[in-house]
Amino acid sequence: MLRRGLWKGTMVRILILRHAPAMPGGILAGRRDVDADCTAKDGLARIRIRIGTVPQIVSSPARRCLQTVQALGLRPDRECPELWEQDFGAWEGLPHAALPDLGPLSTAELALYRPPGGESFEDMASRVRPLLHELDRDTLVAGHAGTVRAALSLLVGHAALSFQIAPLSLTVLHRLSGVWSVESVNVTA
Which Pfam families match (predicted)? Predict the structure, then answer.
């Protein structure tokens, strides 16, 4: 049982939206700036209802994120380069079938693995997490699967890599006095 006054501060609700399905033409997009398929009007409408009203919207500068926010009838207050997807280096632009098999890696090993010329999950998460800590009011964050996993890593560490994150899905976290909790993960329309 919590004693009165133990939790001081303001509860911040952070809604993290993965963009609508990317249209990379069968290749690994990562940091490539590709369009989103925002034609699923019913799905967009249902996600928009789930989002409700938020006092602040921040977005990855990626075209697919900005297009998704616009398709929801919203506009970001600011674009944050920290929210870009993981840079997969030499793997970007490769067909999925051509990506190397890394063999059996633990989530901790996978989190530290850097594709040639790219960044590791941990590198990417290290640029996303400070932004999430700085948010001082309820916020919609428009980002990528990596953005969602980086946020989840605040609670579950590298095990966040085990989560499948669907396009046009919503994950909701709360922060109170520096303590994070999960309301929902990967909610789709």
Answer: His_Phos_1 (PF00300)
What separation, in Å, do the N-terminal and C-terminal C-alpha atoms of the chain show?
Answer: 36
Q: How far apart (Å, rounded) are the C-alpha atoms in residues 110 and 106?
A: 6
Do 59 and 76 touch, CB atoms closer than 8 A?
yes
CATH C-level class of 12-188: alpha beta
Per-residue pLDDT of the chain (189 residues; tens, 9 = 90+): 444 445 567 899 999 999 999 988 888 988 889 999 999 999 999 999 999 999 999 999 999 999 999 999 999 999 999 999 999 999 999 998 999 999 999 999 999 999 999 999 999 999 999 999 999 999 999 999 999 999 999 999 999 999 999 999 999 999 998 899 999 999 997
pTM, two decimals, is 0.92
Extents of the domains making up the chain: 12-188
